[in-house]
Amino acid sequence: MSESPAAMLPRWGIDIRGAGPLYHRLRLALEEAILSGKLKEGDVLYSERDLADHVQVSRVTVRKAIDHLARDGFLVRRPGSGTFVAGSAVRADRLLSYANILSGNVPWNGSNAEVEWIERCTSRPTPDEMITLGLSGDSRVARLTRLSRSEGRPLAIERTCISSEFLPYAPDVTCSIYKSLGDANFTPVRAIQRIFACNIDDPDASMLGVTIGAAGLLTKCVAYLASGRAIAFTRALLRGDADCFVTELAIPEN
What we know:
This protein is of the alpha+beta class. It has 2 domains: 5-85, Winged helix-like DNA-binding domain superfamily/Winged helix DNA-binding domain (Arc Repressor Mutant, subunit A); 100-246, 3-Layer(aba) Sandwich (Chorismate lyase), CATH 3.40.1410.10. It has helices spanning 5-8, 22-35, 48-55, 59-71, 127-133, 177-183, 204-208, and strands at residues 75-78, 82-85, 100-103, 106-107, 113-123, 141-150, 153-163, 190-200, 214-224, 230-239, 244-246. The strands form 3 sheets. A 6-stranded antiparallel β-sheet has the order 5-6-7-10-9-8. The chain has a 3-stranded antiparallel β-sheet with strand order 4-3-11, with no helix packed on it. Strands 1-2 form a two-stranded antiparallel ribbon. A hairpin with a 2-residue loop joins β6 and β7 (153-163). α3 (48-55) packs across α4. The longest helix is centred in the first third of the chain and has 14 residues, at 22-35. Residues 1-8 and 88-111 have low confidence and may be disordered.
């Protein structure tokens, strides 16, 4: 790589301003560069020293950010060669249409779907929510929890957290959360979703009608405004015995 970091890095715009630990902000900036295609599959990441000097943070901060990206499959370390953008990283520059869960070929948000609101309230954010959404300790968030069923069978528990700055009164949401945000002129334009295998514990196991320790799927999705501000943090816990999971992806034009 012949160009210096000072000449090259501004092209994919590292900006780690905001709330939360420095390593987390750097990790999100690098992840954004990968997901948007500014850093492409096979690209070599600059050395920890070069990144630290350019962003003006410690090498420990850079190493921790890279460790997390490597753990989640965005980067791959090759001893003696360097750190590369992994080919398994999924890229998108527009909000993906929302995943439908199929059980017996019936989508959870289809005509036979039922949604039960479990919680619609305002409260303080958790430390994880503060970091993810860039909030301060005295912030308030709208907390929205719902249970989805298909043909009467519980399929998923979805928990969404949104800063009260964008959604002051949680009970106003009666159908689509994203439609409510759009009606308030806060439409997300993209999202990053991570998917994890998990075991389901109570009280979620009871709500989903499965035994404690049953296999499940946990998704964590962060939606962003055009400005880059994180606006919604959704965690969905899905039964592992549903027939299949289907996601429709928007393919960016070249």
